[in-house]
Design a protein that fits this description.
alpha/beta; 8-stranded mixed barrel; 7 helices; about 325 residues; TIM Barrel; about 30% helix
């Protein structure tokens, strides 16, 4: 079963790192319109980028962004079936605060919240918070401890203490539990061995990455054997990008997108995109055909983001 989602609409420019004047404007009005269109036509989910500052340069991609948990709550309240994820940086969110925020969002959406856990990110963003970025494996160790605390809070366990490496908590309790007493869907992205093991043990979905198609074959063999030994079953996905420009005659251009292997490994390619007479572009490669959503009675300034394809469970 093929499932589609939208990625990065909460940030200015989305995943478009260019100076095009029609790049995505991440206003609340645009996000709301996009979410309601996705809800209506059957897109499965929207996934935000957690950004605290832009990348700089002339267009400063992601320089303006909506905080992802509050963003998810707003969109969940305005849709009926769309799953909306929040993206949470483990080192920047206390697990008890995050557990309460995410449970609240799950009730707003009546079980439609998803959680994207990020164990580390950009060094300059960490410096804004006065947080020192930990060594690679330590970040995932903190992530495991963080997630275990969130899960205990969500389980409805009686008041408990926690004495760990990264958190020391006393008299912990938290209600309500997530909607329907079922934990939100959790996903994680990582391409290191440590990151993949974290996903196998804890995630419902995992996004992987490789630099070349040749490496994807080698990478695909390891997680396949790992998940068998761990007894894991979860979904994998790929990402590709497209954007819509103003109405022009047909022309060919090159856009950056991604290519998927059977296990969800990702590598960059540059397929050709054709500008259609109706003003939309369709990205074509040997693996996928994608194009932007076109609203009724008009259209957004640009197709803002990447599409996510979530494949069937292994």
């Amino acid at each position: 079963m093929l499932q589609l989602g939208l990625f990065g609409a909460n940030c200015s420019s989305g995943r478009t790192y260019v100076t095009l004047p029609e790049r995505w404007v991440a206003s609340w009005e645009n996000n709301l319109k996009l979410a309601q269109m996705a809800d209506e036509i059957g897109i499965e989910c929207m996934v935000p980028i957690a950004r605290w500052k832009g990348y700089g340069g002339d267009s400063n991609p992601n320089g303006a962004s909506f905080e992802s948990i509050a963003w998810a709550c707003g969109l969940l309240a305005a849709t009926r079936r769309l799953r909306v994820f929040c993206t949470v940086h483990v080192p920047l969110h206390h697990p008890l605060v995050a557990a309460k925020q995410m449970a609240t969002g799950d009730h707003i959406g009546q079980g439609r919240l998803g959680v994207n856990i990020v164990c580390g990110w950009n060094e300059d963003e960490f410096q804004m918070f006065g947080v020192t970025k930990k060594e690679h494996d330590a970040r995932y160790a903190q992530g495991e401890e963080w997630w275990s605390i969130v899960k205990r809070v969500w389980s409805g366990e009686a008041r408990f203490d926690h004495e760990g490496t990264y958190y020391r908590l006393h008299g912990v309790e938290g209600a309500p539990r997530p909607f329907g007493r079922t934990d939100p869907l959790m996903m994680n992205a990582g391409s290191s061995d440590t990151g993949r093991w974290f996903a196998i043990r804890h995630s419902d979905m995992h996004f992987d990455a490789v630099e070349t198609p040749e490496l994807s074959t080698r990478v695909s063999r390891r997680p396949r054997s790992w998940r068998v030994s761990a007894g894991a079953r979860f979904r994998c996905g790929r990402q590709w990008g497209s954007f819509a420009g103003p109405r022009r005659r047909k022309r060919m251009t090159t856009c950056n997108t991604s290519w998927i292997t059977p296990i969800g490994a990702q590598s960059g390619i540059s397929p050709k995109c054709m500008q259609r007479r109706d003003g939309r572009r369709a990205i074509r490669s040997g693996w996928c055909i994608a194009g932007p959503i076109r609203p009724r009675g008009g259209r957004l300034r640009a197709d803002p983001i990447a599409w996510w394809e979530i494949q069937t469970p292994w």
